[in-house]
């Protein structure tokens, strides 16, 4: 059963996250107003870990890891992204609008 509340926008873009005061590179994909998928992480994360991410020009955003699998994690944003931010990402991928 798919528990997603809304469709994901199929982007795959570079972003950053902060760990122990250090800015680290990663990729984000499958974004919605509620969360996204992160990959290419330099650190291991477990369910319920907290992370501060920047999605390109958007951020920092506080998020909670909801699942982790072999270097990829799904995060839920602590506060939903505003509609304008989601529209920004949808505009990157014309088929997502």
Give a verbal description of the structure.
This protein is mostly beta strands. The protein has one domain: Thrombin, subunit H, CATH 2.40.10. It has one helix and six strands; from the N terminus they run E-E-E-E-E-E-H. The protein has one helix at 83-92; strands at 9-19, 22-31, 35-39, 50-55, 58-69, 72-77. Strand 2 and strand 3 (35-39) form a beta hairpin. The longest helix has 10 residues, at 83-92.
What does this entry show, briefly?
The chain has one helix spanning 83-92; strands spanning 9-19, 22-31, 35-39, 50-55, 58-69, 72-77.
Q: Secondary-structure blueprint of this entry?
A:
Elements: E1 9-19, E2 22-31, E3 35-39, E4 50-55, E5 58-69, E6 72-77, H1 83-92
Antiparallel strand pairs: 1-2, 1-4, 2-3, 3-6, 4-5, 5-6
């Amino acid at each position: 059963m798919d528990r997603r509340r809304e469709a994901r926008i199929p982007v795959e873009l570079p972003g950053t996250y902060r760990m122990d005061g250090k800015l680290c590179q990663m990729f984000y994909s499958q974004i919605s107003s509620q969360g996204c998928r992160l990959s290419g992480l330099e650190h291991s994360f477990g369910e319920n870990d907290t992370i501060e991410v920047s999605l390109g020009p958007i951020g920092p955003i506080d998020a909670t890891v909801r699942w982790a699998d072999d270097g990829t994690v799904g995060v839920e944003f602590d506060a939903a992204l505003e509609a304008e931010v989601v529209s920004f990402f949808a505009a990157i991928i014309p088929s997502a609008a």
